[in-house]
Structure formats: structure tokens, C-alpha cells
């Protein structure tokens, strides 16, 4: 048998003489997609980073508006964000997932975003809340699709947090967010920044 014959023999089925069907690629994943374990680590890491950033945004807003008519509302939302953050801090430890290395940047950037929009006015501060929470609502919704019955506790917690983020969005809308100066531009800029932060925090 020549080398060519040998190659042909290994490429055909011994019973039918036909070439075997190509091995199917696992459904649901493409080359380069994260494994389920990597995806779960990303979920915990980015959610921790996001809640940390949200906490700092409200701290920045309270530094400017802490004595104003919205102070009680801002503290209510800040307290909920702190609860979310504490939950994901525990998840990091329990699952041995490292936080994003850019957390010091979120510490500063979150505070500046909160304080900066508050300086622009109450409606701008509320516009910031609406923009951020709209992105987070969609972000949590996408995550829930990847969580199976083996992660029911995490899924339940994310559903609770998502509902509270939607509550924050609605509070912002009820308090004049859409009447903020240059609302479409301000909202689009904050949304773009939030989406960029999410993408980076998942990976770094």
C-alpha cells in the first residue's frame, strides 16, 4: 500500500468506504467564547465593579446634594447599592474570583461622575441615575440568560438587584431627569461610558 492509499484508508469508514461525517462543534459556543466557569467569574467580577462604581456615584452626588431636597432619596438608593456591593464582595471571596484591577479608577471616576452631574443641577444628577440604571437593567437581563438552575441563589439575587435598579431609574424619571440641560447628549455619553466600563471590568 502506498502512503497515498494509507491516507485514503484512514479517511474512510471501514464498513461503508465513505468518508466519516465531520465532528459537530458543540452548540452554543464559538471559538474564543469564555467557558461556563470563565463566564461566571466575569459575571461576579463585573457586577462587583458595577456596584462599587454605583456606590461612588451616589457618594459623589451626596457630597453636593446631601442637604438638599433629594438627600433622603439619594441615601435610599445609596443604601441599596451598598447592599448589592456587599453581596458581590462575598461572592468574590466564596468563588475565589479576583476583583477588577481597575477598581482604584472606578473609585475616582464614580465619585467624579456623581459630583459632576450634581454640580450641573438636580435634574442632571437624576439624568445620570437614569442613564446608568438603564444600562445596568439590560446588563443584568443579559446575565440572567446564562445562569442555570445550579446558580439559583445568584439568579434570585440578581433579579432582586435588577428590580431595585429599575426603581432607581423610575425615581430619576419622576424627578425631572429628562428635563436636564442637553439631556440626550448627557444621557448618551453616560450610557456609552457605562457600557465601556462593563466591557473592561469583565476582562481586566
What can you tell me about this protein's structure?
It is built from 7 helices and no strands. It has helices at 3-10, 36-65, 71-95, 103-120, 122-144, 152-174, 183-203. The protein is mostly helical and 204 residues long.
Write the layout of secondary structure elements.
Blueprint: H1 3-10, H2 36-65, H3 71-95, H4 103-120, H5 122-144, H6 152-174, H7 183-203
Helix pairs in contact: 2-3, 2-4, 2-5, 2-7, 3-6, 4-5, 5-6, 5-7
Structural descriptors:
ubiquinone biosynthesis, single chain, 204 residues, globular, 0% strand
Quick summary of this structure?
By secondary structure, the chain is an all-alpha fold. The protein is built from seven helices and no strands. Residues 1-16 and 19-26 have low confidence and may be disordered.
Gyration radius from CA atoms, angstroms: 24 Å
Mean pLDDT: 87
Main structural class = mainly alpha
**CA-to-CA gap between the ends?**
55 Å
Amino acid at each position: 500500500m502506498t502512503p497515498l492509499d494509507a491516507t485514503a484508508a484512514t479517511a474512510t469508514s471501514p464498513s461503508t468506504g465513505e468518508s466519516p461525517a465531520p465532528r459537530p462543534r458543540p452548540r452554543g459556543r464559538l471559538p474564543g467564547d469564555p467557558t461556563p466557569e470563565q463566564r461566571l467569574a466575569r459575571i461576579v467580577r463585573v457586577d462587583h465593579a458595577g456596584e462599587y462604581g454605583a456606590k461612588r456615584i451616589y457618594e459623589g452626588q451626596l457630597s453636593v446634594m446631601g442637604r438638599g431636597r433629594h438627600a433622603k432619596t439619594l441615601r435610599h438608593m445609596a443604601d441599596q447599592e451598598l447592599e448589592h456591593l456587599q453581596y458581590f464582595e462575598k461572592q468574590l471571596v466564596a468563588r475565589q474570583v479576583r476583583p477588577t484591577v481597575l477598581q482604584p479608577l472606578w473609585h475616582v471616576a464614580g465619585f467624579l461622575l456623581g459630583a459632576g452631574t450634581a454640580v450641573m443641577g438636580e435634574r442632571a444628577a437624576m439624568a445620570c441615575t437614569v442613564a446608568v440604571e438603564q444600562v445596568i437593567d439590560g446588563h443584568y437581563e443579559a446575565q440572567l440568560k446564562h445562569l442555570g438552575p445550579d446558580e439559583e441563589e445568584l439568579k434570585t439575587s440578581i433579579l432582586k438587584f435588577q428590580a431595585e435598579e429599575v426603581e432607581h431609574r423610575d425615581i430619576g424619571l419622576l424627578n425631572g431627569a429628562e428635563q436636564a440641560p442637553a439631556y440626550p447628549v448627557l444621557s448618551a455619553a453616560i450610557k456609552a461610558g457605562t457600557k465601556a466600563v462593563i466591557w473592561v471590568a469583565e476582562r481586566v
